[in-house]
Design a protein that fits this description.
The protein has about 290 residues and is an alpha+beta fold. It contains 8 helices and 14 strands. Strands 1, 2, 3, 4, 5, 6, 7, 8, 9, 10, 11, 12, 13 and 14 form a 14-stranded mixed sheet that branches.
């Protein structure tokens, strides 16, 4: 889930409580969806080599996808009870498999047999040399850096497909997202964090589809929702109302929520717009949008 998806998740919880116009589970009104989809098309940077750009496209695709798609047929339970210890439990991240100590653009990667190291303006990676008329095929580790030299992402590929651990970091060095991959698809544990370091969500994927339990916390560290998926289909979800309506404090999240709300209101019908404003009155005031 992206930062934008995080803000949409928070909005979807508020809309469920307030009884605002229905959405498809990500906080975007159904009327707004075609326009937003057009805005969120993955970007292609023609100045990058294809082997590196595929990773950029994959990140953009995750941002465009937002949170797992909800289903209108899913069972929804709203409760004022506190979560149980089992519901609140967090899945431990796996031990990180380091690519290289103190990574930088000058680092030497341990490329697999048949691959050699490539370097661009902000990335070092291993790839199999290109055949005539083709492009190098990623094969081995890859590290991308922020402009100041801090690590942005560490991942690996086998025969052109992302495999295993994928670590994404913010410019300040904090972890933004961990995702497990198999053959270019999310497969296994996925965890995302707010910019204040608190866990935002966690869940498991199977061959690119949500499968199992997904948990969502607010930026104060309180569990707000537990959802259950089967092969990408939402089966049930439990909303903890005491915390779902708590107003955000994380500056990054507040900024993204202003953007998300502006998009929602812009594309909503006049009637839905007034209902949304009434249902989110306290939130709008908190965000300085009144």
């Amino acid at each position: 889930m992206s930062r934008f998806g995080s803000s949409l998740f928070f909005l979807s919880s508020l809309l469920l409580i307030a009884g605002c116009p229905s959405t498809s589970g990500d906080g975007v009104s159904d009327a707004a969806r075609p326009e937003l989809a057009a805005q969120e098309e993955p970007r292609a940077d023609e100045e990058r080599l294809d082997v590196v750009d595929e990773e950029e496209k994959r990140d953009d695709q995750e941002r465009a996808e937002g949170e797992p798609a909800d289903s209108a047929a899913a069972k929804v339970v709203q409760t004022l009870d506190e979560p149980t210890s089992e519901e609140s439990a967090k899945t431990h991240l796996p031990e990180k498999i380091e690519i290289v100590a103190s990574p930088s653009l000058e680092s030497t990667l341990d490329c697999p047999e048949g691959a050699r190291q490539f370097t661009s303006e902000n990335t070092i990676w291993c790839a199999k040399p290109a055949e005539a008329g083709g492009m190098p095929e990623r094969h081995g580790p890859m590290i991308r850096f922020h402009p100041d030299g801090k690590v942005q992402r560490e991942t690996r590929a086998v025969d052109g497909k992302t495999q295993g651990q994928n670590w994404l970091y913010r410019p300040d060095g904090s972890l933004e997202r961990f995702t497990k991959y198999k053959d270019n698809k999310r497969h296994g544990l996925s965890v995302e964090y707010f910019s204040n370091g608190k866990r935002h969500n966690e869940g498991f994927y199977r061959h690119g589809k949500e499968h199992g339990t997904f948990k969502f916390w607010n930026d104060q560290g309180n569990l707000v929702r537990v959802s259950t998926y089967e092969e990408g289909r939402l089966v049930s979800q439990k909303l903890f109302q005491r915390h779902a309506s708590e107003l955000p404090t994380d500056p990054e999240l507040k900024s993204d929520m202003r953007e998300a709300i502006s998009d929602m209101l812009e594309h909503a019908s006049p009637e839905d717009r007034e209902l949304m404003k009434e249902g989110m009155k306290e939130l709008l005031e908190h965000l300085g949008m009144e």
